[in-house]
Design brief:
about 80% helix, mainly alpha, single chain, about 280 residues
C-alpha cells in the first residue's frame, strides 16, 4: 500500500503541466492557480482536522505568507511556463527546485553546501542550458525563465516551511499554507477584477477539478502518507523522476516534439537531481 502512495503521488505531480497545457489558452493561468489552491487547500484542511495540533496565532500570518510564496508566486510562474513553453519543459525546470534548496539553506544558516551539491547544481545548470537551446517548437525564452523562477521560489518555500512542518506536522502546515494562499489569491484577483469563472466545457471543468482535488489535494495526502513510511529523503525521489514521467505523458497525450538535444538536456537535469 505504501508503494501505491508513491506511485499515485508521482503520477499526480507529473501530470500537472500536461493536463493544464490544453486549457492554458482558454483559462487564465492566474485563475487556474487560484482555483487549484482554494479547492486543494480546502481538501487538505478537511484532512488536517484530525490533527491534535493547532497553529499558534503568532505563527499563522508567517505561515500564510510562506504559503503565498508557493501558491501566489511560484505556481503562477509555473502556469506561465506551461502556457509559454512545452509541458515537458516546464515540468523539467520546476523539478530542479531541490538544487536551489541547498543554496537557500546555506544562506539562511540551515545547512551547508557540499562539493557534491555544488557539482549537482553546476550539472543542473548545464542541463538547463542544453534544454533551453534545443529550439523545440512550443518553447520560448519567457516560458523557460518563468520555469526557472518557479523552481527557485518553490525551493525558498521548501526551506522556509521546514520549521513549520517540524513544529506542526507536514500535513497541517501545508494545509494552512495552501488554503491561505488560495484565499489571498482570490482577494488579489477580486481587487484586479479578474475573479470570474470562465465559460468551460465539461472536459475543461474536469481538468480544473483534477488539478484542485487531485494534484493539490489527494497527491499531498498520499505524499505525506509515503513520508510516514519511507521518510522525506526516499520519498523525495518522486521529484527526481517527475521530468521523465512528465515528458513521457506529454509525448503520449500532447504529441509534443522531442529532439535529441532536449532529451539529452532532460537526462542531464535528472542525473544532477540524483547527485543532489
Amino acid at each position: 500500500m505504501h508503494y501505491l502512495y508513491l506511485v499515485i503521488t508521482l503520477l499526480f505531480f507529473s501530470s500537472l503541466e500536461v493536463v493544464t497545457k490544453p486549457i492554458s489558452g482558454r483559462v487564465d493561468p492566474f485563475f487556474l492557480t487560484f482555483f487549484r489552491f482554494i479547492v486543494g487547500g480546502t481538501f487538505l484542511i478537511l484532512f488536517s482536522t484530525f490533527s491534535k495540533r493547532r497553529i499558534e496565532r503568532t505563527d499563522f500570518p508567517k505561515l500564510a505568507l510562506v504559503g503565498c510564496l508557493n501558491g501566489v508566486i511560484s505556481m503562477s510562474l509555473l502556469q506561465l511556463s506551461v502556457k509559454y513553453s512545452n509541458a515537458s519543459t516546464a515540468a523539467t525546470l520546476v523539478a530542479m527546485n531541490p538544487l536551489f534548496v541547498g543554496v537557500f539553506a546555506q544562506l539562511l544558516g540551515k545547512d551547508r553546501i557540499s562539493k557534491k551539491k555544488w557539482l549537482a547544481m553546476a550539472l543542473g545548470a548545464l542541463g538547463v542550458i542544453v534544454l533551453s537551446s534545443a529550439n523545440v517548437s512550443g518553447d520560448s525564452a519567457f516560458g523557460i525563465i518563468c520555469g526557472i523562477l518557479a523552481a527557485i521560489s518553490f525551493a525558498l518555500y521548501t526551506v522556509l516551511m521546514k520549521d513549520f512542518s517540524s513544529k506542526y506536522g507536514a500535513l497541517l502546515a501545508t494545509a494552512v499554507s495552501t488554503f491561505s494562499a488560495g484565499v489571498v489569491y482570490g482577494v488579489l484577483l477580486a481587487i484586479f477584477r479578474r475573479l470570474s469563472l470562465p465559460h468551460l466545457t465539461w472536459p475543461e471543468t474536469f481538468i480544473l477539478l483534477y488539478v484542485g482535488i487531485g494534484v493539490t489535494g489527494v497527491a499531498y495526502v498520499t505524499f505525506f502518507k509515503a513520508i510516514q513510511r519511507f521518510g522525506p529523503v526516499k520519498t523525495s525521489v518522486i521529484f527526481y523522476l517527475k521530468p521523465v514521467v512528465a515528458s513521457l505523458l506529454a509525448l503520449l497525450l500532447l504529441s509534443e516534439t522531442m529532439n535529441v538535444q532536449k532529451i539529452v538536456g532532460t537526462v542531464i537535469v535528472v542525473v544532477s537531481l540524483f547527485l543532489k
